[in-house]
Amino acid sequence: MTLVYPVQSLAAHPPRLSPAYKSTVKRSPTKPLIPMRHTLSELTGPVYGHETVREGDHDLTIHGKGEPIGERIIVHGHVLDEDGRGVPNALVELWQANSCGRYVHVVDQHPAPLDPNFTGAGRAQTDAQGYYRFVTIKPGAYPWGNHHNAWRPAHIHFSVFGHAFVSRLVTQMYFPGDPLFLFDPIFNSVTDEKARNRMISSFDLENTKPDWALCYRFNIVLRGRNATPMENS
Amino acid sequence: MPQTKPDGITPSQTVGPYFAYGLTPNGKYDWNDAFNNNLVTPDTSGERIRVEGTVFDGDGAPVVDCMLEIWQADAQGRFSDPQDKRALPNSSFKGFGRIGTDAKGAYAFDTIKPGVVPDPDGKPQAPHILLAVYARGMLLHLYSRIYFDGEAANATDPVLALVPADRRSTLIATRQPGNGNPVYRFDIHLQGDEETVFFDV
Description:
The complex is a heterodimer of chains A (233) and B (201). Chain A has helices at 40-43, 193-197; strands spanning 3-4, 34-35, 72-80, 91-96, 121-125, 131-137, 142-144, 150-152, 155-160, 169-174, 202-203, 214-217, 220-221, 225-226. With 233 residues, chain A is mainly beta. In chain A, strand 9 and strand 10 form a beta hairpin. The longest helix of chain A has 5 residues, at 193-197. With 201 residues, chain B is mainly beta. Chain B has one domain: Aromatic compound dioxygenase (Protocatechuate 3,4-Dioxygenase, subunit A). Helices cover 2% and strands 26% of the residues of chain B. Chain B has 1 helix and 10 strands. Chain B has one helix spanning 20-23; strands spanning 48-56, 66-71, 96-100, 106-112, 128-135, 142-148, 172-175, 183-185, 188-189, 199-200. In chain B, strands 1, 2, 3, 4, 5, 6, 7, 8 and 9 form a 9-stranded mixed sheet that branches. Chains A and B meet through strand 2, helix 1, strand 4, strand 5 and strand 10 of A and helix 1, strand 5, strand 6 and strand 10 of B.
């Protein structure tokens, strides 16, 4: 099976210049991007050895000496291509703020406490069906300097590799029903409502672990579709 | 598995200012690197090179919170991916690198000069490295290509031919004077008069 990566699918992405998110103004190109046919360079992508993802990398609650503070959650789902097929062996990297809305990063000076038992970095590889699973802590909302009283809705950053260098995706997963959605220029940079909603995880009661952790499902759809679609496939 | 066909791809969002401890810890954070900026492995054949440069924004200011990823073929023009049927399954050269820019907006990759990769018509492309650029203020990463100074094949490269002649130089890394392994300079301008050519791929 040969996958193709039509540029039409890119319409789901936010425009690079999105002035409400101020940092885009000086960091987006002003000259037209050059269209080109994909060559082998664009259509291939890195593969990883098993050493890239270690046992326990997917569980962000066990990386410290003790348990981190906050609401323990399971975040799981499938990495899919545009036809809905699971993407096997996909590397999924995740980073996030702690339950207080503070990042470990040295530049983050938000006056909320760091948690010595939580760095907020994790890594997983999808199985043969494209399934991945993380255990983590629900991140807090946090203020940022974009405009007066700007707050980011709680989110988890995801970095995902698919079958090709052009299916590479960095995105953010949001939590359902967040009252900050209306006011966030990064979330709203995605102008199509249906596309925007694909960044919101769904509460997954069925996979919640009683007496232990709530569960959220986040399916990630990467570029890539069958070059010659079969009927009834 | 979800039962319904997706109604589209997941939209991109910015990598933000705080990716380093997850994606490029590089000894500064308590997390291991999945990838780094040294692609050379002991069994790698080919010419050792360094590609280095600085990333600039539209004001000409260095971008100090930028992440760069590169993807390239080996010296024989093969990709370390089973989708490339010519690939050597046991080679330890993976062809993928990642680095965050430093406090001056600078970056460097140690790698090998890639070989010739065919275009979809089977015509040779000049040696090139694919580049993806991520940063705070970038809602979607940008793709570019790093070509090399002094390559005769640049003149007939089918992708460079698509680029207006007066902008082609933004895609060609310049060989720096000096002894030892060749060093190529490739600055990245996100915007402005010297704006790097980015591809709609």
